[in-house]
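Run folding on both entries below.
>entry_1
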Amino acid sequence: MILCAVQAEARGDAMLGTAPPQTRVLLVHQPGPWGPRGLIESRCDPQIARRIDIAAAAAGMRLQAIRRPGKHEVGRPAGGFDIGVADSRAGAATVTWWKVDDLAEIVDELEAGGFSRAPLSVETAPVYLVCAHARHDACCALRGRPVAQALHVVRPGRVWETTHLGGDRFAANVLVLPTGELYGRVQPEGAAAFADAVDAGDVVTEFARGRIGLSPIAQTALFYAHQELGIARRDALSVISVERIDADNARVEVQTPSGAVIVTVASEMQEPAQLTCRGPEGVRARAYRGVALSR
């Protein structure tokens, strides 16, 4: 069942440019097992879950069900359900948290455009979401749950297992909020060093898939520049503009501490493959790579 991730590594599948497009993420605490469709196929009332899903999409948010690492809680979680909204936009990177006794409490507010109740807290410290969505793809649980547990040991209270993050073939996948970096092929034995780097405000280019809210081309250029310039600070670089050269190539202007640079990004369709354990064979994905950097 873990064959698709092993095959992806053997093929050298490119990870850059594969983070989701949404800048905001709705986090909904739902312990217990998740079906292939996540919150909709969980212990949450299906009608409530569908309304939450629709309201999140209407607000431009990505919905992620979350639960604590380890043994699943039975029944209502102690203290209530955690609800979070992560905003990864520059200058507004925060995770705002609420607690509710019943997920039905948030539906009307979400459908009205947002929460009217006062938040429990507004945080900027990194929160680690590790995909462990076994019913969507077995690789995510087999590789994700050990990483979630290892991160939980070194960052207790700041780690959640979560539903599908995309790119199952890159498991274990870790989304860092509120800044929005998405990482793949993270290993449990490197969890402490990984968390230390993230907490210090650095990006970890070795495992980078991209940053949510940016186009695939912009994501690729940004992390290629981090790697080529040897600049680890996540806030040291930013994308200024993207210019298409043709269907497969683009120029991206990236701001650095010493001025702007131009990154050339190329893309191509990969050979047909099985991209997920549950998915069909013969699917082709577009891969992005940085090919040049100039002043």
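>entry_2
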Amino acid sequence: MNQNIINPKSIAIVGVSENKKKIGSVILENLLRDGFKGDIYPVNPKYEELRELKCYSSIKDLPDTPEMVCIAIPSLAVENIVDECIEKKVKSIVIISSGFKEIGEAGRNLEESIQKKTKNVGIRVLGPNCLGFINNKENINLSFVRKNPGIGSIAFISQSGAFCTSILDMALESNIGFSHIFSLGNKSDINENELLDLLIKDKDVETIILYLEQFFDGKEFINIARNTKKPIITIVPGGSEKAEEAISSHTGSLVSSYDTTIATLKKANNIQVDSANELFYTVKAADLYGEKNIGKRIGILTNAGGPGVMATSSAEQNNLEIIDLEEKTRTQLKEILHDASSSQNPVDILGDALARDYERSLAILLKDPLIDTVLVLLTPQLVTEISLTAEKIAKVSKETNKAIFTCFLGGDDVKAGIGILEEMDIVNFPSIKEAMNTIYKMADFRKKIAREKIPLIKDLTKKRENSELIEKYLSDEPVILPDKVTYKLLKEFDIKFADYLSTASLEEAVEFASTRFPIVVKADSSDLAHKTDFEGLYLDIRNITELEEKFTTLRETITKITGNASPEILVQKMLDTDTEIFLGTNREGDMDVYEDKGLGFGHLLAFGHGGIYTEIYKDIKHILIPECSSRIEEIMEETKIWEIVEGYRGKASLAKKDLIDLIEKVQRLLITYPEIVSMDMNPVILDEKAAIVVDAKIYIKK
């Protein structure tokens, strides 16, 4: 994307009038007030002059071709203006107007018509249904925001105009400025990936905020975001059906699964936040502590025991470490504190602590090499020197490269102290919980900047041995593969599975089972996908008589449900059940998702507790492939079942390497055969020696 698109030298505004409350008029006012230095052309056939500027009846009547046209008129009139822009050879358009795909089919058709026309001639479009944009570096405020917070080192990309304005209002209160602000709206053309790439390359941008309801291309987003040390703080709505319905009606977005979104943000090393308030404090921390060290080993300084206990609990919940102080640190603290004080972490300097006690204790804590970051807690006791303590904390902060966060607890009594902290660029939190949450997210971001690189798609793709077989079943709708085909694919990638025979013949079943008892008989997945729901599975069959009975009964059940008089039945050696693992996947995008022009995220792997109670345990974590083995293990460690894999309560550890190897083989399978739209391996039996697939279902789709 060309930098000139966001730095036009001349702008025409369609929709201005004498009515100062009209959107077009507000945009013109903002552009003038913020000091735009280029040419401005108001367009409205009703006026000859507006705001001491000559007004033109149409784009065609302009004396020169503006580099950008901003359109703020009813949607049904927008396409005519776009046609004039094409005739005038305009380079870019900002469509403020709503009434496009977010309202339904008619609006979608209108938006697609405009999109096709502008794409054919190379005109770039921001919007429609957007707030506009601000480039404070060039004094361009082509938006209808109430107030511009002014210049700063933070850039903001938002798909929601309303959310954008609420964040700007919060920023005004705390004197936080922005280099750029972009409202994407429906993203008919210009998308977050293009802008993100542009902002990452901008040396004046230090932190980036994203509010997204829909990703343009998840793979590209990850590749762009992972290759920067700049914090990218992202808030993504969704997570429930109602939230996704609201998003759809808001910007017409086709929402990907919330699990995929979260996995994407983690893989892209974004700092994910869940609310405007959390976003605000994380942005402040990133903006003010760019060069400061923020780590997971926390020191806590407090003048009250209760908040110290709360902070310890909150730190542990956020995977932060309350470290044991070095002996030297404890000795130095004992020398300056009362006998009743605690020189352990959290360091409790008691309710009568003065500003000098805070200053000296904080300086000692910061010198401990085991401490990365310090949280200072203050409660307003009768003798507490609140404002002076704030000044002392700010003084110490200037003398260290370690981040100091504060939590001054209270109301009116602590307001002045908080004001001093904010003035001196110290981040103060209204609650301990918010403080620990933000510290963890910032520390986690810093830690993961230098993580292992993602494997390349081309390195994971192998020569396809079963292409013709797959293409035989491929359709526009999901199709479940017969078990014989599924197991051929597993074999192609050396994935271990339980010994089996797929047959319609009872005689063949008996011959196979005679040397393998105990065995299992089950319906083919193409006949009964969920076998336990339809009595399609019989376990622990130990003799031929029992096999003949169950085989016949199962054949009759399948025939009754499907009408197939001679169904294939799977006869499989029964394995001793040690630990059952679930491994599944869904594809986000079409089958061309891994190609250069393919859009989407790829396959999201789900890993966790397996067996028939998978949905009850809900012990599932997600891996967006491709992923490196170290990160695969990190994600797996987040599940409860991983404690069993590692060896719980003195038991031997299970075949962890074999399990990780299985997942790496599965991601090669999925990338080599992107036709796979969904897959379940449940259960995978894991013991001390191996990870073996017992049941697998594969669906394919174009």
